[in-house]
Amino acid sequence: MNFETTTVTRRTVLGGVLASAVASMVPSTVFAEVVDFGADGCAHGSHSNKANLYAFPGVQPETTVIAATWPVRLNRFDSSAQKESQVTIHAGAQRWDVELPRGAADAVLLEQHGSRIFAGSVATRPGTDGVVLKAVIIEMPKKVLGGSGAMDIWAERVLHAGQRQRVGSPFIAALVAEDAGLARSYHNISPSDDREMLMEGVVKAIAAKGRKSGMAGDPDAYARRLASRLLPDVLHYDPQWPSGFTFAAQNGRHPEEVSDLVVNTILSGSPAPGSPKADVRLQTPFPFFSRHDSAA
Question: So which residues are the signal peptide here (predicted)?
Fold first, then answer.
């Protein structure tokens, strides 16, 4: 059986072995997505409103979870803007093409070949900032990944108006969030082009952070060494090794890890200030994520 490419659309999901619409408290016709992005290509809003990519061991034995989340700001008056978007998750030789449903409450669930795929909103109501969290979450047996060991994971989302949003590691996400020029280049290329197209911009951004933090030593040399390690921008994960996103090593990324503290400290070359907070508090049942438990 070939798992290299899995395409999931609204039609195939609803016709799958297990398909259901998540219960709606807000009719999907009431809300429409607003294309209103900051430098990082994500909806404006609080600290938690960033695209994120995760890979971690599943709750069930011998399973792996890959999840991509995007914040989406909704407009309750413009129903004409409602369109599905297309999400592609790349993991080594595997690829999943998933249609992300529109609206605040739309979601679909598919169980196929031992894998479970969720696409849609992970909360039925927008937050107080008018933003809902959209997600594509895949829980799969490790055998689906072919036992190939380490793999590079990244995701991309194409909106109805043609805008493309890309997400990989939280290191590069932190840099493009602060640099509109870097963000424009980043969201329009793939990892194979990163070293050629992004290297100098990433080096410049890291060096600026080092100078601002008062880093000891040479910020430019540090920035070039770190940029060479961070590019191409993907999330590295080997299911055969313990997972963890720490100062010592980054193998995958779990939503409950304090990744921002690790990212800010490594990028600046100095201990990051502030109180560490986990990205998300997971629920036990699939699909695990709930926006109401996101760290603010």
Answer: 1-32
